[in-house]
Recover the amino acids of this structure.
């Protein structure tokens, strides 16, 4: 019943307004794209419906009963991670700036070995549902879980709103539907996946998306190489001949020219990945630490393959699109800017490219793939956000771990609906704002709040609750304040003339600040609780290495019993 | 309870196999992390210092040096993760298995 309602709710307005918009703008509605889009939505809803039966307990809801295989999980991680920003955004960066876009992709990829070496196995050995489980293992639950949940929610919300706005714009352009309808449909779908199917449905939506994206990218890359007779020399020569920046697109520069900004961006890309709550959560869906490690390897391979394909699409789009004015807004004098005037903006480069090399069928397919990409990422984010509220805040802080499973899952589902509603509302009200800062802020907070707390709690014996909480708040507040003071918000959103903070990304400053605070405030912590927390490191160390469950009691409890 | 957990933890930590496992894995973990980070941030530093050199084509091909390095790094990253997973899931997990059998009741 619910399912059919959703199908009607999403498909009907799409079809109806597609016709309306096509009539007013005169642009042909892409029925192939809409057809494939309907097929994908229907498939994901079938997945959700089938998962609903097996999502009963708390472990089912958050982690699909820890029963996902490493290969499935690896694909799902790739599906969770490769957002529309990665697919459309990085190919657009390569299209506009050449090799710089590739370096950006490299930063995304470099986060993965760090996730593997430092995070995956210990996280799996120490926790069961959210990364706060591991961070709060030997520290005091209430404050640690609260800051971890706040950090997670900030990351999730900013990332979600950035994705939703992108989704609205992409869907508006691809299918010719109204922006609000697009955003609301995405919101309804993601709430349905999470509340009805939990982690099981989310995982399969992500696996489907990863498979579609890898196939679509390969197909498109193959078509581009075919166009240039499989010769990179021809491709690069053609691209640098026609690009406004000429041969400069074959050398890095621009984005990474200034060392402080470059390193700051690099830190956010690399360590942000290791602090993204929706990624960290995925390690709990497998059986054990060995499974978690294997899934990172599969995910890394997918992301690496994707990082190799994306530049081919970006570079290929340069000669193929720039030589044809029909892809651009041409002014009265017949002039057009080869980057800014691309219809729909440079983010549409990969989509236009698919139409150019593969005709309407490939265009329809890639449009639908872009849409599936968005759905999988927002579903993963919503699940991470609602588990922070349901498990960390309600289950562990409010109910002190004594609430019933059913009640906690119910709270999580309500939280998922609220997060979805808030994201839709924000995406609607920020429609015409410059939101470039949002994804960057999400990564910076992940790198300066979640990552330092987790890594210090896991690896450094000296970490105490006081240090971890102070450091997390310093990293969180530091990165938010610095982003507000930087050009992307201070000038682009608030309209001031010049920004007090000269760099775009705060990670170079906020991340060391967080580490420094954790270190300093732990070192000077002389309370009995701190001593007990340091002693409890041994038990945590053993469990994080070999996974033996020692009978462990929190320090707070031990103190109370004394 | 806490006291019991502490004692058992100390007993496991004192076991030579555990010490070998923990120190060998820590060595592998931190050295691979450092290699990865030096590679990426070294590349970023190279971009801001020797930009023009990276635009030059690699001898005998049309591929610019920067692109060549980036592709090499992608392959190295996959190999490093593969190596860590292989090493952990074979050698280290054998030790883990032994220790677990002995110390869990």
């Amino acid at each position: 019943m619910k399912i059919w309602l959703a199908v009607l709710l999403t498909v009907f307005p799409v079809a109806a307004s597609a016709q309306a918009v096509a009539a007013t703008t005169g642009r042909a509605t892409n029925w192939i794209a809409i057809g494939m889009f309907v097929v994908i939505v229907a498939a994901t809803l079938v997945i959700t419906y089938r998962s609903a039966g097996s999502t009963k307990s708390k472990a089912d809801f958050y982690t699909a009963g820890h029963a996902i295989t490493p290969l499935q999980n690896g694909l799902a991680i790739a599906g969770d991670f490769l957002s529309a920003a990665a697919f459309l955004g990085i190919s657009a960066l390569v299209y506009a700036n050449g090799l710089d876009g590739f370096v950006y992709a490299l930063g995304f990829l470099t986060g993965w070995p760090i996730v593997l070496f430092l995070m995956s196995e210990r996280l799996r050995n120490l926790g069961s549902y959210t990364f706060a489980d591991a961070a709060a293992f030997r520290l005091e639950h209430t404050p640690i879980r609260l800051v971890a949940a706040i950090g997670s929610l900030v990351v999730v919300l900013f990332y979600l709103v950035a994705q939703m706005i992108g989704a609205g714009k992409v869907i508006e352009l691809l299918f010719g539907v109204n922006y609000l309808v697009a955003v609301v449909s995405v919101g309804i779908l993601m709430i349905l996946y999470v509340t009805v199917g939990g982690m099981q449905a989310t995982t399969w939506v992500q696996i489907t998306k990863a498979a579609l994206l890898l196939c679509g990218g390969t197909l498109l890359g193959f078509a581009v190489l075919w166009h240039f007779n499989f010769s990179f020399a021809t491709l690069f020569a053609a691209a640098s001949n026609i690009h406004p920046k000429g041969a400069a697109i074959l050398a890095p520069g621009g984005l990474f020219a200034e060392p402080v900004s470059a390193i700051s961006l690099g830190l956010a890309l690399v360590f942000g990945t290791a602090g993204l709550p929706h990624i960290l959560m995925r390690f709990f869906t497998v059986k054990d630490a060995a499974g978690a490690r294997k899934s990172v390897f599969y995910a890394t391979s997918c992301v690496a393959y994707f990082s190799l394909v994306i530049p081919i699409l970006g570079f290929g789009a340069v000669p193929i699109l720039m030589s044809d004015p029909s892809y651009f807004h041409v002014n009265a004098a017949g002039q057009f800017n080869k980057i800014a005037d691309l219809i729909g903006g440079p983010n549409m480069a990969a989509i236009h490219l698919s139409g150019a090399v593969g005709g309407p069928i490939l265009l329809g397919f890639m449009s639908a793939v872009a849409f599936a990409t968005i759905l999988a990422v927002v579903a993963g984010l919503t699940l991470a956000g609602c588990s922070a509220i349901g498990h960390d805040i309600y289950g562990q802080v409010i109910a002190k771990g004594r609430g019933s499973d059913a009640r906690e899952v119910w709270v999580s589902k309500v939280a998922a609906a609220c997060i979805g509603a808030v994201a839709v509302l924000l995406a609607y009200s920020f429609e015409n704002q410059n939101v470039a800062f949002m994804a960057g802020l999400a990564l910076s907070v992940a790198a300066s709040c979640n990552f330092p707390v987790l890594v210090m709690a896991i690896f450094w014996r000296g970490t105490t609750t006081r240090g971890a909480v102070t450091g997390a708040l310093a990293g969180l507040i530091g990165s938010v304040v610095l982003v507000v003071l930087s050009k992307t918000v201070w000038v682009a959103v608030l309209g001031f003339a010049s920004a007090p903070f000269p760099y775009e990304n705060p990670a170079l400053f906020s991340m060391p600040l967080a580490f420094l605070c954790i270190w300093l405030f732990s070192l000077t912590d002389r309370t009995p609780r701190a001593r007990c927390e340091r002693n409890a490191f041994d038990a945590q160390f053993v469990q994080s290495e070999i996974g033996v469950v020692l009978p462990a009691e929190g320090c707070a409890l031990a103190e109370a019993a004394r | 309870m806490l006291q019991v957990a502490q004692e058992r933890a100390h007993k496991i930590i004192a076991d030579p196999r555990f010490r070998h496992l923990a120190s060998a894995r820590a060595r592998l973990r931190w050295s691979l992390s450092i290699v990865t980070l030096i590679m990426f941030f070294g590349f970023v530093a190279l971009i801001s210092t020797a930009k023009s050199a990276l635009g030059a084509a690699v001898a005998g091909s049309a591929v610019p040096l920067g692109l060549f390095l980036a592709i090499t790094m992608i392959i190295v990253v996959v190999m490093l993760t593969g190596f860590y997973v292989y090493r952990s899931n074979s050698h280290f997990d054998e030790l883990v298995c032994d220790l677990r059998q002995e110390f869990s009741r």
Notes: Chain B has a mean pLDDT of 85. Residues 4 and 98 of chain B are 22 Å apart (CA to CA). Residues 65-103 of chain B form the longest helix (39 residues). Helices of chain B lie at 2-14, 16-49, 51-55, 65-103.
